[in-house]
């Protein structure tokens, strides 16, 4: 069944531009491929109350929330504590995590053995640190390589009927298309029809996409789109 997801990105480094957020575009594309949809992205600093406030707002609205960042061994990794605070529960130590933390610099890594009370641990195929789940909140690392790897551990939980998508490229100003696009959207309210100007050598390049769960509706809208404009409107 299709799920509505939100992503909560945690990190001062994202808000100050020191680190580029690569997890949002990856998640958006992957969740769409699975047949669900990412509908909200919120970025917050490494502050317990800020994380908890946004998390509580999101989990009242969306089927699932994925968090990115703030679960390492250092002082500014406060996501676990913030999630526990949001749910009004304590952090508890999980001795089962000790073997996964390694022997070096163990004192710092021990912080990673604390998870919100009642959270479940979803194991990975390679025996590395599990994905921590607290009700409908999935807690993932912020490092893109690790984020992508952990996402695949839970990906099947977001599988649903696939989306179908078609696209057409035009070589006229976007404003020339607006009336017809509005009419097509009104005729097919279950579809998502978007227009996206692109900056290329040609001063006017507009990509129009039509997507939805019903392949027949997508094709019907595509046919109407193509019949709504003269040939010279379309890019070669």
How is the topology of this model organized?
Elements: E1 4-10, H1 12-15, H2 23-34, E2 37-44, H3 48-59, E3 64-68, H4 79-87, E4 91-93, H5 106-109, E5 114-116, E6 120-122, E7 131-134, E8 137-140, H6 144-154, E9 164-170, H7 178-187, E10 192-198, E11 205-212, H8 215-227
Parallel strand pairs: 1-2, 1-3, 3-8
Antiparallel strand pairs: 4-5, 6-7, 7-8, 9-11, 10-11
Helix pairs in contact: 3-4
Strand order of the largest sheet: 2-1-3-8-7-6
**What is the arithmetic mean of pLDDT?**
94
Which CATH-level-2 architecture of the largest domain?
3-Layer(aba) Sandwich
Number of strands: 11
Number of helices: 8
Structural class: alpha/beta
Low-confidence stretches: none
Largest sheet: 6 strands, mixed
Query: Nearest-angstrom radius of gyration?
Result: 22 Å
Order of helices and strands: EHHEHEHEHEEEEHEHEEH
As for the number of domains, it is 2
Helical fraction equals 25-40%
User: What's the name of the CATH homologous superfamily of the largest domain?
Assistant: MoaB/Mog-like domain
How far the N terminus sits from the C terminus, by CA atoms, comes to: 39 Å
Residues in β-strands, percent: 25-35%
- CATH C-level category of the largest domain: Alpha Beta
Concise summary:
It is built from eight helices and eleven strands.
Architecture overview:
The protein is an alpha/beta fold and 236 residues long. The chain folds into two domains: 155 residues, 3-Layer(aba) Sandwich (Molybdenum Cofactor Biosythetic Enzyme, Chain A), CATH 3.40.980.10; 70 residues, Ribosomal protein S10 (Alpha-Beta Plaits), CATH 3.30.70. 32% of the residues lie in helices and 25% in strands. The strands form three sheets. It has a six-stranded mixed β-sheet with strand order 2-1-3-8-7-6, with helices on both faces. The protein has a three-stranded antiparallel β-sheet with strand order 9-11-10. The two termini are 39 Å apart.
């Amino acid at each position: 069944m299709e799920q509505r997801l939100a992503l909560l990105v945690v990190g001062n480094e994202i808000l100050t531009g020191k680190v580029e957020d690569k997890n949002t575009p990856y998640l958006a594309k992957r969740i769409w491929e699975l047949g669900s949809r990412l509908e909200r992205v919120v970025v917050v600093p490494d502050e317990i109350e800020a994380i908890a406030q946004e998390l509580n707002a999101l989990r009242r609205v969306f089927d699932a929330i994925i968090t990115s960042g703030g679960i390492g061994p250092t002082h500014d990794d406060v996501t676990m504590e913030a999630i526990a605070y949001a749910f009004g529960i304590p952090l508890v130590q999980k001795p089962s995590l000790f073997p996964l933390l390694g022997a070096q610099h163990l004192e710092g890594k021990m912080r990673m053995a604390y998870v919100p009370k009642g959270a479940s641990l979803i194991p990975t195929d390679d025996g590395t640190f599990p994905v921590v789940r607290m009700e409908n909140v999935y807690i993932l690392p912020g490092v893109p390589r690790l984020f992508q790897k952990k996402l695949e551990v839970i990906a099947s939980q977001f599988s649903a009927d696939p989306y179908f998508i078609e696209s057409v490229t035009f070589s006229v100003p976007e404003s020339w298309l607006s009336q017809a696009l509005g009419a097509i959207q009104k005729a097919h309210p279950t579809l998502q029809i978007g227009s996206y100007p692109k900056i290329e050598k040609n001063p006017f390049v507009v990509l129009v996409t039509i997507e939805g769960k019903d392949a027949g509706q997508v094709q019907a809208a595509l046919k109407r789109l193509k019949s709504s404009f003269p040939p010279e409107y379309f890019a070669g």
